[in-house]
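Researcher: Sequence recovery benchmark, item below. Answer with residues only.
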């Protein structure tokens, strides 16, 4: 597969890369007589993305748009901003389907930069917010209708309650719940927040919040930091760029970056929401955010943080009860554990509500 895309050279290696919960990612190295080419090869999970060609179409639209804007603004910036490029297949088009129906695509590698699964420092947190704000600003001039909804209901939290109920009603799901006290506690945790969890969808339905293009998955592991300067240079993983509320992005960035233990932590006692990190991210984000956020947007920022942490916990939990059909797992019970990490984070967010609201108000 690595040789099906329009990159020069002979194949040296293909190694597994990244830690995605959905797609399979590889780093490919090719060499010519005088230089080397590296790129990212991915097999898109078609159980999750039923229309991967629409994912590629969105990616093409967004990358063309952002590359054009970055070129226009190149002399206004304090740094080099990057965004991956879709590498076409040798046969034309932006993807290759293999004999087993596997859907493959190639993406350029971001030069001299890395991402981290956990927040490293206050500066790192600031950069995560800054990169998200810049990305949202860049795509804000793209009409949302141009983008396909590749995962219907992706961040519509009440929809995941329905998925949990469905999984719990099934015999195998009911058995998984019965066998684990931790799972029963998670269920209780969810039940106590059932009525509140439509908070953003209701505001959207009332017309208070509007749909715009969003990234969909701006977790810390998708923020690339320039090796040479330590500054943010890029946001990657454009699979979930689609129309949505910018609150989904804001909440996801904060729930991911303000948990110093990371979302795979096995030690729940280390999981909490760090409000100093939160202040640093919000400061970075608002450098751009203040250009496009209105009062109604601002009124829901706290709920967004609490909700997206809750939603991710609910998604992991529902998947555990359903038998791990969505998120990849490396050990038995991983999705239950991931859910407990997010729910612990939600509790910490709730405990620190006043402090978080205060820092959001003054941002
Ligand atoms: C999944 O596959 P990955 O790691 O980029 C998920 C996100 C979650 C994230 C949590 C399409 O992202 O929504 O926030 O795991 N992506 C999809 O780590 O469901
Ligand atoms: Mg993703």
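Model:
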């Amino acid at each position: 597969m690595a040789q099906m895309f329009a990159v020069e050279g002979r194949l040296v290696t293909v190694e597994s890369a990244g830690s995605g919960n959905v797609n399979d990612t590889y780093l490919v190295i090719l060499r010519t007589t005088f230089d080397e080419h590296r790129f990212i090869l991915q097999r898109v999970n078609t159980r999750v993305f039923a229309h991967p060609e629409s994912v590629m179409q969105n990616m093409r639209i967004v990358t063309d748009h952002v590359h054009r804007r970055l070129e226009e603004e190149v002399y206004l910036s304090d740094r080099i901003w990057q965004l991956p490029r879709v590498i076409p297949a040798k046969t034309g088009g932006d993807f290759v389907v293999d004999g087993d129906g596997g859907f493959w695509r190639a993406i350029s590698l971001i030069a001299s930069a890395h991402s981290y699964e956990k927040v490293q420092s206050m500066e790192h947190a600031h950069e995560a917010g800054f990169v998200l704000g810049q990305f949202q600003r860049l795509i804000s001039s793209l009409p949302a209708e141009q983008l396909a909804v590749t995962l219907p209901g992706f961040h519509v939290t009440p929809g995941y309650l329905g998925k949990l109920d469905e999984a719990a009603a099934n015999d195998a799901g009911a058995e998984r719940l019965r066998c684990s006290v931790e799972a029963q506690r998670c269920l209780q945790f969810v039940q106590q927040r059932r009525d509140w969890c439509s908070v953003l969808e209701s505001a959207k339905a009332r017309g208070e919040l509007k749909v715009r293009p969003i990234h969909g998955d701006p977790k810390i592991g998708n923020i690339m930091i320039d090796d040479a300067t330590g500054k943010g240079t890029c946001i990657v993983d454009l699979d979930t760029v689609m129309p949505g509320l910018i609150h989904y992005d804001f909440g996801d960035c904060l729930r991911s970056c303000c948990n110093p233990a990371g979302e795979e932590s096995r030690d729940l006692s280390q999981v909490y929401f760090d409000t100093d990190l939160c202040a640093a991210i919000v400061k970075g984000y608002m450098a751009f955010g203040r250009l496009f956020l209105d009062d109604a947007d601002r009124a829901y920022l706290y709920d967004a943080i609490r909700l997206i942490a809750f939603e991710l916990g609910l998604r992991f939990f529902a998947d555990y009860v359903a038998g791990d059909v969505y998120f990849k797992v490396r050990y038995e019970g991983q999705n239950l554990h991931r859910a407990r990490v997010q729910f612990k984070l939600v509790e910490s967010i709730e405990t620190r509500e006043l402090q978080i609201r205060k820092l959001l108000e003054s941002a």
